Amino acid sequence: MKKLTCFLFFCFSVFYTFSQTTFSMEEVVHYLASPELEGRKIQTKGDTLARQYLVNQFEQMNVKPFHNQYEIPFCTRSILMAQIGELCSDNVVAFVEGTDAKLKDQYILVCAHFDHVGTAKNVYFAGANDNASGTATVLYLADYFAKNPLKRSIIFACFAGEESGMLGSNNFIKTFPEPLNNIKYVINFDMVGRYDDGGLCLMGTESSKILEKTVKKVSKKEKITANESASLFFVGSDHYPFYLKNIPVLCFNTGNDLKNYHTPRDKAERIDFAGMETIAGFAKEVVTELGNNPKYPVFKKMDETNIKKDNAKMMWEFMLANPNKFGFEFDREECGNEIEITKTTKKGEEAGLLVGDIVIKINNKPFECSMDFLELAKSEKEKPFKVTVVRDGEEMVVEVY
What we know:
Aminopeptidase; 2 domains; elongated; Pdz3 Domain; alpha+beta; single chain; 11 helices
């Protein structure tokens, strides 16, 4: 009987061990970036499927919902998409309570946006790096800290609507059910899947002396290539609304990834998953240090000189990317891997361009999507511009002076 009991215990142990699944960031990225989710644009089927998936992940990890519900709905207008009216979605928010009687009423907010830009002209934009990678990292940390809680509590937020103007994070701030300064740090992950392209970029370390010291301390222990990112990106992600509320922030990313950013090329097979593991391990140590450090962080406003300079540069480049110089306009929201002329300029009309023409090349240079085209619009100067279009199924070249 004793031998039988030991044998049964052994069988149960083996079954239990193999029935436990190890969390996989790779699986998360592959699912969120799959064609089924159609690019996860706010207020679409993909948006809904992504939210359901995130809730399911938190439930499987036994990570509790924040304030009794995972999904926190919002409806708001977007300055970037004002013509659409109100946009509605849900942030997905979970919570691991701290272990210290005093510090557990203070929070570290660990966040990422899960949405992307959807589909256009029957092409879907997978958004593997932007930002399935960041979302997967948040889930990884939730899984870890559910088993290894800190003195401070941690909120894990997956924000909707970032691509439409940081709608989810702004509404999280507006509806936060406690004093906002209970959030002591915001740790944001946005595009962390290109570590192999130049390492980890960190922004916001100067917003708190404790943050700065913590990052330096962990950097000495962890083998990681860390750089400061372009200051332009600092204002373009979900940590920034919190920074404007005087909360110390730290954003993890791996560069702006202009070769793949907002293009159909941003797919799961291009992600550096080993690099994501490295970044997640580094972030785990940073959050652990911050979560167990009883010192109260003091917010420090950063020098915004470079931020303003880079934004001015971005606006200038945006103006240079105006397709009007090629003799036409197009709907940037609807552009997939083809550009349909919606309006011609005087020069374009004189050259023979027509509304409805499909533009496929500029000066014999093809492009895969609107982002590629805008890069051509910035760089091409040779006149006359040879605009290759498809009209009534036939390819033709129109010269625009």
